[in-house]
Amino acid sequence: MIILGIILAIVGLVLSVPALLYIGIALIIIGVVLEVMGMAGHAVAGRRHYY
Length: 51
Fold this sequence. Notes:
Blueprint: H1 2-15, H2 18-39
Helix pairs in contact: 1-2
Pfam families: DUF6131 (PF19626)
Protein name: DUF6131 family protein
Transmembrane segments: 6-34
């Protein structure tokens, strides 16, 4: 999810499409939050680890 967000953010910047940039940033933030929760040992979406 983080990698997809980075790709969308870069494409949004290069093509000057603000919607892609905002979606990319949102995916990066959500991915980082899920990754931190998984690393802390909390169950994420019913799974012990989030990959």
